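dumping the sequnces here before i forget
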Amino acid sequence: MITINDTDLKKAELLAKLSIEPEKRERTMAEMEKLFGYVEKLKKVDTTGVEPLAHTSEITKENRFRRDEVTNPDGAEGTLFNAPAKKDGQFVVPKTV
Amino acid sequence: MESKNVEKTAPVKGRPKTAECRRYDTVIGLEVHIELSTKTKIFCGCSTKFGALPNTQTCPVCTGMPGSLPVLNKKVVEYAIALGLATNCRINQRTLFDRKNYFYPDNPQDYQISQLYEPICLDGYLEIAQDEGEKRGSSTASENKTGGGTSTVCKKATKTIRIHEMHMEEDAGKLTHDESEGISLVDYNRSGVPLIEIVSEPDMETAEEVIAYLEKLRMICLYLGISDCKLQEGSMRVDVNLSVKEAGSDILGTRTEMKNLNSFKAITRAIAAERERQIALLESGEKVEQETRRWDDTAGASYSMRSKEDSKDYRYFPEPDVMPVVISDAWIEEIKQRQPEFKEEKAARFEREYGIPAYDADILTQSRHLASLFEETATLSGQPKKTANWFMGELFRIIKETGKEPEEFTFSPKHAADLIVAVEEGKINQAGAKEVFAKVVLEDIEPLSYMEQHGLMSLSDEGALQAAIEEVIAENGAIVEEYRSGKDKVFGFLVGQVMKKTKGKADPGKVNELLKRNL
Amino acid sequence: MELLQMSVRTLSEKIRTKALGVEETVSVLQKRIEETDPELCAFLTIEKEQVAHRVEEVQKGIKSGIYAGPLAGVPVAVKDNICTKGLRTTCASKMLENFVPAYDATVITRLQNAGMIVLGKTNMDEFAMGSTTETSAFRVTKNPWNTHHVPGGSSGGSCVAVAAGMAPLALGSDTGGSVRQPAAFCGVVGLKPTYGRVSRYGLVAYASSMDQIGPIGQTVADCKALYEVIAGFDEKDATSVDKEINPAAIKDRENRNDMSYMTGEYPNKMCIQRLKGMRIGVPKEYFGEGVSPEVRASVKAAATLLEANGAVVEELSLPMTDYAVAAYYIIACGEASSNLARFDGVKYGYCTAEEGSLHELYKKSRTEGFGEEVKRRILSGSFLLSEGYYDAYYLKALKVRRLIKEEYESVFRRYDCLLTPTAPGTAPKLSESLQNPLRMYQADVNTVAVNLAGLPAISVPCGFDKNGLPIGVQFIGNAFCEETLFTVAEAYEVLRGEFPKVWKQQKNGQKKEERLGVPEKNSAGKEGNGKAGGCDGI
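..and the predicted 3d for all of it:
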């Protein structure tokens, strides 16, 4: 049975760029543990030789392609419309280097 | 591309003694990204043109707007197949995209659509030329029975560098830094530009081999016309994975990944420095950390890119928004049929068909475009060797002087051939021909009418020449006598006089011939 | 309030023949919303000015003949995770509280091309993660049948809007039952189309490989009319499928010299004719121990009714059903953790007010912007995809998913459709479900397998529990066989008779008696004596 301790939660928080408040950590870990415990039932299924299924749309002989033709106009306005911070037509973030 | 908070590590003190250096072999594998020269991005219809104002070449898809969906550009798949075939890869006929998850502002979705589990090309190789003297028969040959190793087929020794796989993925946006305000700015014009990443096996041992491999790969891409492969401009990016191991040992050492290598020179320097750094660590009893390092070419040193706020765990999983790509035999065959003749075959054929020296053939095929200009010109002029000389001499001089790309020369071979024939027929002298040749290659003028308009035509008309010769003989009686009495040396003077009279337009060969006859 | 009682068929017919004005229609509905929504809380955003502008456009379009389709002039409510250009799209999250998309989802373009009017954006579980519409960051939507109960979710707002007569039609999205389950809880019809049938372009992704936009209406015919507007291939969605909507049905309609199905107040009896000999499978796993006796009885009665009218009804077994919820949550959480990474405070959406490094900007914006359920699913998904867990969980779930799909395929060789309860129970009381998330997930047992396999399914009201809360019967079809579902569902609807409308009762002040009358009649069917006469039952 899988157990979720604070180290596991911290790892998930790091990966997901989230943090769980101290008073909610216990509950979060408990809920995650319950979910992970529950999904472990899949181990009972024999999947030897079974290919994973990531797409349910039919895979047809006709691939889903786009032609290499410019179709989009200048998109700067729409791109920056909702930006929390912008400068000189660009998004602003805290210095990265 | 993600980058990490740079954290400087102390340079290792104490250089290894030279004697000890010999105890280590270097093992190098490369990850090469090439940016494809498609008109549009990999998953949307935005232009890939350089130099546009920030964020003007963006749309909901390449900026990761909620609800937007990627649709794959067919050209990207075609380019990848073509490159795979050119590098002896097996084409994966059911290839899938995966998501690589990491947070960074140049990556608008905070995941990159790439390929991990079913990349498009697998198990290829490139053969690189190797100097006889440099050939190391030992370790690599025995280790890599499946691929790597040296062989001495042909005249030159070659070495096989295996390609593990190559895959398609999207490029990231561009970050610029505003030091004064402590901010970075994000431009997504490059976000979604298609890339192919070529991952080699660790089959290289020296910087020379690395450069040879890269040159070969670059040449293939240029011939395919799928990328301009410029290291300085980032359309070819090379990450060097390097480890050292004790000579003869089968156990590979811990490798590091070196990034930010913007020239062949930087690659060579970085390889030497990293080899030394790792050996020094081992010699002093320390361990080599498996990490990504950033090369600083100015400092001539590298820095660790470790960061405690980022995880290397990319959580790859099948990209649900992009359907698997099914590549039929027919499609592969169609692309095979369209493959160009690559550099080496072309050079060999030039040598054979046009009887030009191997050296010339090698130079003339450095660019597929120039090679085809050469070939057409040579065929039209019927003077392959002369054509080669004009290209190797004048054309390359002009390319160098103007700083233009070979592809920018779009003159008609017919014009070049006409000029070369005119020279051979003595219709123009060498000096005039050089002037006209420059006009042909830069402005694509019609050489014969230009020669006429600018009075550059040689006087090959015997009547006009005869008159000039007769005048010279009459004016230089004494010298003519000297010649006739056996003083051959003065002949040159007389020729010069004729040339002077014809203002240099006379065909010297013709002058020689006529003068002799008259004397 | 005559207008509110019309079916979409009647409404659109009146608008087309100009017996009813578009403006009038919209203002009646807006008045209804003003009266009803303060209590029910189905809507998040209504921009009256934008709507007025659109009404004008539509009136002109109908006049000039640009909008000649069957739904021209018909208003529709849209779930707030479908992007509407220039109209706030929040996903019921603080993260997108002020997000105004610069583009329309493909379904919105299709609604517009059909001459429809978007009335407003409806409440939902935050980022569609939830089964009650309670995880919304803004308001809790109430079940119109009993305001102490949830409407179900995540498309709770859309289903309530239709159920309460605030919109004749609505769009929802269904990743694990988010259209069908609230439709069942609210007593309306909801369809989850085949994966790839409706473009997802512009639908803010929760679990991309399972998300599908679906129509919600009072009747099967209403639902179908909206389905025909939104369904079809879209070059902007590579997972959408280029397959004719239904050649047979279109031909059939031509034969019937169509519009007949649009004009009659009730579906014609054709569908009952076509029911004859149709093979309906009843998978026993969908009637497992979690299913309440009332739901079981009501749904079994529906089966009996169909059988009595010519369908061949057989019990069958789908053993993989037991693993569906587990596989579903692994895949959904995994995909969600990646899909929701983009909400990082840089390009759009909530951005923390606190200064700090890039890492802090990310962490704070996301921590402050997302609600608890969303955070938990992102964390779970990130963890399950991480090194050392991917193979054992995610990859395993993808393999189980194939087995589930194959199991369905095998039964669809023998059956035209399957009949199941949509949900194991009726709408729970407010705030009851969130106390035990795992139990809430497990209650999706009857809906999630369909999403894993990409199949179409429709929920149709079939009765009430003892508290007067609606029960839904679910018909599951083979991929791209929506038309079969419509046929069966419509036949069932005709046999069942008109289903009570909650707002009609409120108006008439007689809701109690009517509601309570229902389960008794259904329980008569439970004995297996169901007969054709049952159609007057409700």
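The radius of gyration of chain A is 23 Å.
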